[in-house]
UniProtKB/TrEMBL annotation, chain A:
The keyword Hydrolase applies. It comes from the Bacteria. PANTHER family: 5-OXOPROLINASE SUBUNIT B (PTHR34698:SF2). One of its GO terms (molecular function) is ATP binding. It comes from Hansschlegelia quercus. Coiled coil: none annotated. This is Allophanate hydrolase subunit 1. Gene3D superfamilies: 3.30.1360.40, Cyclophilin-like. Residues 4-203 form the Carboxyltransferase domain. The lineage of its organism: Bacteria, Pseudomonadati, Pseudomonadota, Alphaproteobacteria, Hyphomicrobiales. Keywords: ATP-binding, Hydrolase, Nucleotide-binding.
TrEMBL record, chain B:
Coiled coil: none annotated. It comes from the Bacteria. It holds the Pfam family CT_A_B. InterPro entries: CT_A_B (IPR003778), Cyclophilin-like_dom_sf (IPR029000), PxpC (IPR052708). Residues 25-304 form the Carboxyltransferase domain. GO terms for molecular function: ATP binding; hydrolase activity; transferase activity. PANTHER family: 5-OXOPROLINASE SUBUNIT C. Keywords: ATP-binding, Hydrolase, Nucleotide-binding, Transferase. This is Biotin-dependent carboxyltransferase. The keyword Hydrolase applies.
């Protein structure tokens, strides 16, 4: 395994970079270092932010200096503790055209029927790489090649939270209504981000995820239950 | 309970505390003040730690009225124009607003943001541990949005009495912004030597479309040595990102949590507020410093903040007798 690069994002943030690709093995190393530093909670480390291939460590340089922090990160990396396995989720997803607004157009542009595109999406093994873009917006790897598509040239108007989307080589679920360039191929009744729930964020980076196809009736009933605070995704 | 009623608010006035920490890993941006130093000074002038929620006033200005009870406030930040009931006050000041008195803050000689801290803090619900507003996500502050006419903000209990007006003396808040100090990286290696030189030569001008999310820079167009796409990674406030069009963007308090363009440099912590206070159209340059230099500046700033904020009771400053009569202080008794 190659040693990580240590890059500075100013005098109060260190980026520990394990590679430059979207790759589960690289992401695993990021998450292992994240877990080690969360457990150690060194004084002066203010916030840890794992992303695909690097860990952003924000720190107070008046409490812990860069050299000490680099040494801690090197030590934790060399110890090579494997990351504890993440959870595996089954998330209900409705591919009915009423909520899967772009599915027909999106599938046609890839030479697929909407049913085929939905089946491919529901058969894929997804991995939560990291959060970004907006609160609770998790980037999912594992998009089947047949569903790869450039994002829209112009962002489309906001769509409801729960919209299941694909764009570029990734998947995602919308959590707050924001305009994006992604394609909406389904909708989940699950609230992946709910402020009044503990935990507010259901998924953790490194978790595995599958979408389970449900029809419009099941969607309505699960949506009512989810709105009342009941989790409708389950761990497998 | 005391409250502040917003009479008028220009675009972009929000409730901010020190920021929402610890949730960037879930895609939640910290938000918080654009000028963290000015925000801290305003709170400190009221004897509060730097966490109490305050109003961040944009160039659009704000006009508000104390309701139900007196409200003690401190104002610090850019050189804004401040007045009570039409009587001019210094730009950095503490005072107690009597019920139904109107405080007006307008863009003044310099600066782009100013902070109205309140004894007891603005009492809005804490969301994920913070009262900071992130308007883009509709999170925190007053209903997750910028303030507007008719809003009524509850004020927390402070246990402090009224105070006579005093000018806040913090000349070090009057920070010239001709050069903004940065540390190169984290992705400076995406740029050839001549492009890094062009970055430091500038000069740069802040575009008027800048906001709490980002400062858009007009100046030389930079080219990338090895493409402009990187695998997205976490971004800090002050990151100078260079997208495909070669026009740098300084990511600020409401930035997206991750970014997919190379970041040529990062504004040092102590200069975030200086940068935020630059007005559109004013030219400036970036200057490289080392981490050691940046930490030394940070240490100086922390030492300054650890001392009491110096205040001069306004009887000793030059005020019109009309103004003093209005404050009922002409007898020369200064308490506090």
């Amino acid at each position: 395994m190659t040693a990580p690069r240590f890059l500075d994002a100013g005098e109060a943030a260190l980026v520990v970079e394990f590679g430059d690709a979207v790759d589960p093995a690289i992401n695993d190393r990021v998450l292992a270092l994240d877990a080690a530093l969360v457990a150690q909670a060194p004084e002066g480390v203010l916030e840890l932010t794992p992303s695909y291939r690097s860990l952003l460590i924000q720190y107070d340089p008046l409490v812990i200096d860069r050299a000490t922090l680099v040494a801690l990160a090197e030590e934790a990396t060399e110890a090579g503790e494997a990351r504890a396995p993440g959870a595996s989720w089954v998330v209900p997803c409705c591919y009915d055209p009423a909520v899967a607004e772009d599915l027909g157009e999106f599938a046609a542009a890839r030479g697929l029927s909407p049913e085929k595109a939905a089946a491919l999406h529901a058969a894929a093994d997804w991995r939560v790489y990291c959060y970004g873009f907006a609160p609770g917006f998790a980037y999912l790897g594992g998009l089947p090649k047949a569903l790869a598509a450039p994002r829209r040239a112009t962002p489309r108007p906001p769509f409801p939270p729960g919209s299941v989307m694909v764009g570029g080589g990734l998947g995602a679920v919308a959590t707050v209504p924001m305009p994006t360039g992604w394609h909406v191929v389904g909708r989940t009744p699950e609230r992946l981000f709910a402020l009044d729930r503990d935990p507010a964020f259901l998924l953790s980076p490194g978790d595995a995820l599958r979408f389970e196809a449900i029809d419009a009736n099941a969607f309505r009933s699960l949506d009512t239950r989810a709105a009342a605070g009941e989790p409708v995704a389950r761990k497998s | 309970m005391a409250s502040l009623e917003i009479r008028t608010a220009g675009p972009g006035c929000t409730v901010q505390d020190a920021g929402r920490r610890g949730h960037l890993r879930y895609g939640v941006t910290a938000a918080g003040p654009m000028d963290p130093l000015a925000f801290s000074v305003a709170n400190k002038a009221l004897g509060q730690d730097g966490e109490a929620a305050a109003i961040e006033v944009s160039l659009g200005g704000i006009e508000l009225v104390a309701r139900d009870a007196a409200v003690t406030v401190a104002i610090a930040g850019g050189a804004f124009s401040v007045s009570i009931e039409g009587r001019a006050l210094p730009a950095s000041v503490t005072l107690t607003l009597k019920p139904d008195e109107t405080l007006r803050i307008r863009a003044g000689a310099a600066g782009a943001w100013c902070y109205l801290a309140v004894a007891g803090g603005i009492d809005v619900p804490a969301i994920l541990g913070s009262r900071a507003t992130h308007t883009r996500a509709g999170l925190g502050g007053f209903e997750g949005r910028a303030l507007k006419a008719g809003d009524r903000l509850a004020i927390g209990e402070s246990g402090r009495g009224a105070r006579e007006p005093a000018e806040i003396v913090a000349r070090w808040l009057d920070r010239p912004a001709k050069d903004i100090r940065v540390i190169l990286g984290p992705q400076a290696d995406f740029f050839a030597e001549d492009q890094i030189a062009a970055f430091f030569t500038g000069p740069w001008v802040l575009s008027p479309r800048s906001d709490r999310m980002a400062g858009f820079l007009d100046g030389p167009v930079l080219t990338h040595a090895k493409g402009h796409d990187i695998v997205s990674d976490g971004v800090v406030m002050g990151a100078v990102q260079v997208p495909g069009d070669g026009r740098p963007i300084v990511l600020m308090a409401d930035r997206q949590p991750t970014g997919g363009y190379p970041k040529i440099a990062t504004v040092i912590g102590p200069d975030l507020g200086r940068f935020a206070q630059i007005r559109p159209g004013a030219p400036f340059r970036f200057r490289a410093v080392t981490i050691e230099e940046a930490v030394a500046v940070r240490r100086e700033e922390a030492a300054r903040l650890s001392r009491e904020v110096e205040m001069i009771p306004m009887l000793r400053t030059e005020l019109s007798s009309e103004f003093l009569l209005g404050l009922n202080l002409i007898d020369g008794v200064v308490r506090d």
